[in-house]
Each structure stands twice: as structure tokens, then as C-alpha cells.
Amino acid sequence: NFLKSLIFLIFKGSEAPSKIEDMLVNQTIVEYYEAYFHPFDSFTPDERDGLRQKLLVAAKMENDYDRYAEKMDDIEEQISSPEPPAQIESKALVLTSEERRLKLIRQCRAFRAVVLDRASTPAEKEKAANKIEVYKKELYEASMLVKIDKQIDHIEEQKRRLKVRSLSFNSYYEFALERIPQITSLEKIHFDIRDFAAILKQFYRGGELEMTLNSDIDANLFDERFIVFEIDKIKDDPVLFPIVVLIIMDVFLQKMRIKKGRKALIIEEAWKAIASPTMAEYIKFLYKTVRKFHGIAGVVTQELNDVIDSPIVKEAIINNSDVKILLDQSKFKDRYDDIAAILGLTPIQKQQIFTINALNNKEGRNYFKEVWICRGQNSDVFGVEEPPECYWAYTTERSEKEALKIYLAHYGTMQEAITRIEIDRKKTGIAKYLDFARKVNQHQKVMTLWENQ
Asked: Angle of helix 336-343 relative to helix 311-319, nearest 10 degrees?
């Protein structure tokens, strides 16, 4: 399912595949791995018989009345011919299609002789004529089976030629371009193989994105306890971004199944790339499955509309999320009724949310921001007050990060830089981290150096 989603993400983008396209790609992926792990040699008798019945049904579906009548005229000529049919001596318990066809012709001719014999009674002639009609229908089917057996031989040879010597996107691409036309010809269905080939070609041998799907994944990812995938550099790439996000998702799903202990996947902003019709079911599967493997999934977004744009994802995320966390929502006050309805908030919870950062409760305390946390039906507003050292470690404010770099360059380690910059801030009596950072950036030196000037 992951590989199918990946192929359609490249081939169709955000457009949902048709059922025919889904069937074809699914079949080629299954057969591709089958060809690698169990190279094809020939059909077993049971496989051959099953394929024969399938092709016979398809042949009957294709044959309209005019064709049937034409074929019956041909059969009439065969049984009326004065030349005896070729004799085939077979000691096998089960006759081949050709042996059965020749036997039926001989039987029809024997009953035809009874019909033409003047010595035969009317009852004998009628019985013989009825037998001929029965055998003609059987002969019609036997003639079709002769052609079908030749068709099965051809299919067998096609499958025998399909070799997969190594697993990669390159070998799948080659396999699919050879196999899909065979399937569409056999099933009498349409699939635009040229569009498929052209769109996927950029990931194939010699294409500009060849390495994206043909390089081996870093095996260490399965042993790392904490992984951050930073994909800012490709966030605006309409082709690469959703593909890389999908691959990251698959890495987590494999770790989720294989690894023991608690697992968590937090998708920040990037989750929008996987909210296409092709990916929506994938996200739904993740949210419904992760708990069974002692894991959690979380989505971080600045806009709730991101979640509700996809009905499937909306239902999967909201209905399967026991914990909801909201920051300051004052800018959404005018349309908060819609948001409350989506999240299923009570009037009391709405009142709680609009007290976030709105109360006069900051005096005499370190810098903190408030957050609303709901677990099941229990909710409240909490102040997030972190140690100054944590603030310096995780700040995303550019000026503060630049000031910390100056301390890092001077003291050599991040731990020492954070310790020293906080000691110096307290020494100056400057309450706000940003004000102190601007002062450091102004001097472009640590405080002890510009104090001694």
C-alpha cells in the first residue's frame, strides 16, 4: 500500500486514481516482488486450469451472436467434411483441448451418418440430430479452448521473460512498462502507459531525481531513538516534498511495528503534503493503527482549516485524538463557533480558551505563555514556564539565536554557552531575553569582553 501510494503520488499528484489504475499498479507491484523472490518457470496444472476458465469466460463475453453463428457454420463444415479428422493416440487420463476437439468431430460425424442412413428409424435420426447439436456446442467450446491453450502458452512465455534481479525503482519501472501492456491487452482495458512512463521517468535511470528512489535507506534510522526530519529545503517543491514526507511516514510505520516500547510521530506543518486523496487513507490508517503498537500520532498546525480541508483526514485525526492542545486563539474569535463545532467543544471549554494569555497574572513570575489542554472531557488552561536554560536551547527568535552563537564561538560547547549567557543576563538585570540578545549582538562579543573595554 505504501509503494502504491508512492507511485500514484508521482503519477497522479493530488488526483485520486481510477479503479483500473489502482488495480493495474497494485498487480504490477505484487508480481514484481513475486518475480524477485519466486522467479517464474511455468504454470502448475491448477494454475493453468484456473487461467483457462478465466480466459474462457472472457472469450464468451467477447463473442456476440453474429460471431457465434459464424463459428457454428464453421463447425458444421468441419463435421460435414468427407475427410476423416486426424487421429491422436493419447494414453493420458485427461485429454488435451485439441484431442477433445478431434474426438467430438468424430462423434458428430458418426451421428451425422445415422441421420443420413436411410435404414435409420425416425426416432434414431431425431436422437442423433439432438446429439449433434449438443456436441456442436461442446465443439464450439473445445475450439475456443484450443486457442486459449495457445494463449496460455504465450502468457507463460511472457511471464518467464520477466526477470527482476535486484529491487529498486529502476527495476520496477522496467518491469511495469513491460507488464502493464500485457495486462491491458489480456483484459481488454485502457491505461495510458505513455503518460505513466513519461511522468515516472524523472526518477528512473539517468533522470534528475534518480537517486531519490534508488538509494538504500539509512539502516541506522531503525535504531535511533529520536529523529528529526528537516525538510525546509524542499518544502516548496511540488514533486519532492510529498514524496519525501510519504517515505518518512513509512519509516515510522515500520519502526512502529518492529520496535517495542512507546513510539510517537509528530507531524508539523509538513502534514499538508500528505492530505491528498492518495494519502488521506494512509493517514487514516496511521491514526487508527498506531495505538495497537503502543504509539501516538500528533499533528501540529497553525490553521485548523488545514485539518478540515480533507474530510477523511479530518475524521481520522479529530475522532481519534484524545488530547487536543490549543494556543492563543484570539485572532479566530469571529469564526470560533465553526472551530468549536469541529472540535466538539463545550461552552465552558470555549470560555477557558479565550482566557489564554488574557488574564493579568504575570507579575512576580518568570516569562511564560499559556496553553489550553484537553484530555477526553477534562480541560484547563496551563502556564508553560520553562527554565531559562531551556528557553535559550529552544528559542527560534533569530536575534537570540545569533547572540547564543557568539557565546558558543567563545566558550566552545553549547552547554557552556547557554550557562554563561544566562548568568550574564541575570547579572545585567535585563528581564527580557530578546533585549539582552540585542545588546550582545550590538557588541558582537560576550559580556565579559565588552565589560572590560
From this structure: 70
Three-class secondary structure of residue 216 per DSSP: coil
- Judgement on whether residues 85 and 152 belong to the same structural domain of the protein: yes
- Give me the residue label for grid cell 569582553: 449
Query: Is 406:445 a contact under the CB 8 Å cutoff?
Result: yes
User: In which residue are the cell numbers 491453450 written?
Assistant: 149
Query: Residue 400's closest CA among 346, 441, 368?
Result: 441
Give tens-digit pLDDT for 305-354. Answer: 666 666 766 777 777 788 999 988 887 777 778 778 878 888 899 889 88
Provide the number of structural domains found in the chain: 5
185 lies in which domain range?
1-32+167-214
Identify the residue whose cell numbers are 524542499. Answer: 234
Indicate the pairing of strand 263-268 with strand 295-300. parallel
Residue 3: CB atoms within 10 A of its CB come to 15
Q: Which residue, 357, 385, 413, sits at the end of a domain? A: 385
CA distance 142 to 283: 51
- pTM confidence score: 0.60
Which of the pair, 53 or 397, is modelled with greater confidence? Answer: 397
Q: What phi and psi values does residue 71 have, to the nearest 5 degrees?
A: -65, -40
Of 326, 259, 330, the C-alpha closest to 299 is 326
Q: Please, what is the Cα angle at 168 between 166 and 173, to 5 degrees?
A: 105
* pLDDT, tens only, 241-251: 888 878 888 88
